[in-house]
């Protein structure tokens, strides 16, 4: 990902602080380029447009819709929605693409354009380069008689819900019979458009906080344990069986166990995979920085674990190639290709309730029975010199490790690993390690920093 004037530009979109890097002019240029490029692919002239609840969303939404019309796109406007809902709508309408206004888990002052291809996946590297080339070569605008139309589609959430409860091995009747009490935190994001509806359909008693979809996040919106104290209290005080937290655009799901402890977002994929791999055969695909709890889930099911470079589209493309039944990322992102190839919090929630039905025991008891690991994350300024010498030094320093060079360098042992990679969003190098205890993970980080510090001089 490149940064220009504070604007973060990746193959699959742009993001920035509203009124600083992300201005109406910038949004219009990228929306026009995406619309023109998508139409030129020849599959359709329809573009799906949706937004999450961010305060700047309605303003940018109007700009995007008008701009797409001006390049000749017929806009299907699904309004306030989730990122997976937008992806599914692209597939449903056989559209040329989709444009989702959402900065995902970024702070309140950010917004972004997420660019979705006709497949329902975010743009891949080559597609993103081709689309952005129009910014330099010129965007073909429509003449007055070819300006596109706008059609409202209010059914995105309903279709999404039907797809989730239609998963063959999600036993809706059995889940309803359990009458789970579920605590829910939607961080005043787009989760309010589907999460309560899904849980009520599954017969759950829902106790909820932060449900007003006005984008005024009451806390940092990323659903990591340190941001979920209010939900932890709600689970404990209400006696809920489980707590669900989603990020503003509802592609990530974090869990709070009965008793009121956030268990960490890596467990979402690991636990969801335990359900899926009981019913479907094939590999589990995740990225190189995902916890070993996911690898343990694959091993228990007799499934192969396949690691892909960091980034949702990288995982999704690898899943498509391998026809994997389940995949995702350790940030709470579950991808179930039987529904679509995108991270999807409602799918994760349904799979977790199905797991509780199949296990017949509490989430806290289930988690307590699993191996525990500790992840330590560090970062340092990226040196001007090539990182290849760092990778070479680390490979020599750890000759007994299995090396993976798809995305930086990942060195792995049976019960621990360390991943050194340049960030895609900041001019830094990330060092992430996992081991059975904190001391072991910190030692891997310390030893991995030695050649990096030497390179900085």
Please name the CATH topology of the largest domain.
Alpha-D-Glucose-1,6-Bisphosphate, Chain A, domain 3
Number of helices: 15
Q: Helicity range of the residues? A: 25-40%
CATH class assignment of the largest domain = Alpha Beta
Describe the structure concisely:
With 457 residues, the chain is of the alpha/beta class. It contains 15 helices and 23 strands. The protein has three domains: 155 residues, Alpha-D-Glucose-1,6-Bisphosphate, subunit A, domain 3 (Alpha-D-Glucose-1,6-Bisphosphate, Chain A, domain 3, 3-Layer(aba) Sandwich); 200 residues, Alpha-D-Glucose-1,6-Bisphosphate, Chain A, domain 3, CATH 3.40.120.10; 83 residues, Alpha-D-phosphohexomutase, C-terminal domain (TATA-Binding Protein).
List the main descriptive attributes of the protein structure presented here.
alpha/beta; Alpha-D-Glucose-1,6-Bisphosphate, Chain A, domain 3; TATA-Binding Protein; 8-stranded mixed sheet; 23 strands; globular
């Amino acid at each position: 990902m490149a940064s220009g004037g504070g604007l973060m530009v990746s193959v699959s979109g742009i993001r920035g602080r509203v009124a600083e890097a992300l201005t109406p002019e910038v949004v219009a240029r990228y929306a026009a380029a995406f619309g023109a490029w998508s139409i030129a692919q020849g599959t359709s002239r329809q573009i799906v447009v949706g937004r999450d609840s961010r305060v700047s969303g309605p303003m940018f939404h109007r700009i995007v819709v008008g701009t797409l019309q001006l390049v000749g796109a017929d806009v299907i406007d699904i309004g306030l929605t989730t990122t997976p809902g937008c992806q599914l709508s692209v597939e449903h309408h056989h559209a040329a693409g989709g444009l989702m206004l959402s900065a995902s888990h970024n702070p309140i002052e950010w917004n972004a354009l997420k660019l979705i291809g006709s497949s329902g996946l975010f743009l891949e590297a080559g597609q993103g380069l081709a689309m952005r080339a129009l910014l330099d070569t010129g965007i073909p605008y429509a003449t007055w008689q070819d300006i596109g139309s706008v059609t409202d589609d209010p059914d995105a959430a309903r279709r999404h819900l039907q797809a989730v409860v239609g998963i063959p091995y999600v036993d809706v009747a059995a889940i309803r019979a359990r009458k789970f009490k579920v605590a829910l935190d939607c961080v005043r994001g787009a989760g309010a458009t589907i999460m309560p509806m899904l849980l009520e359909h599954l017969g759950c008693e829902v106790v909820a906080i932060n449900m007003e979809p006005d984008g005024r996040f009451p806390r940092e919106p990323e659903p990591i344990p340190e941001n979920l104290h209010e939900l932890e209290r709600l689970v404990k005080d209400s006696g809920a069986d489980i707590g669900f937290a989603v990020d503003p655009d509802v592609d990530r799901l974090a869990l709070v166990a009965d008793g009121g402890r956030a268990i960490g977002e890596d467990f979402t994929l690991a636990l969801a995979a335990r359900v899926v791999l009981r019913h479907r055969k094939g590999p589990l695909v995740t990225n190189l920085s995902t916890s070993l709890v996911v690898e343990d889930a694959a091993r228990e099911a007799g499934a192969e674990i396949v690691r892909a470079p960091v980034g949702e589209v990288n995982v999704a493309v690898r899943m498509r190639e391998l026809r994997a039944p389940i995949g995702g990322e350790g940030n709470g992102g579950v991808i179930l290709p039987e529904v679509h190839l995108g991270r999807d919090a409602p799918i994760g929630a349904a799979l977790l309730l199905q797991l509780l039905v199949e296990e017949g025991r509490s989430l806290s008891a289930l988690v307590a029975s699993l191996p525990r690991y500790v992840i330590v994350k560090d970062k340092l300024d990226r040196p001007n010199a090539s990182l290849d010498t760092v990778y070479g030094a680390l490979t020599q320093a750890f000759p007994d490790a299995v090396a993976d060079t798809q995305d930086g360098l990942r060195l792995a042992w049976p019960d621990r690993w360390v991943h050194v990679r340049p960030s895609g969003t900041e001019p830094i190098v990330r060092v992430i390690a996992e081991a059975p205890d904190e001391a072991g993970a910190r030692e891997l980080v310390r030893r991995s920093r030695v050649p990096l510090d030497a390179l900085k001089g």
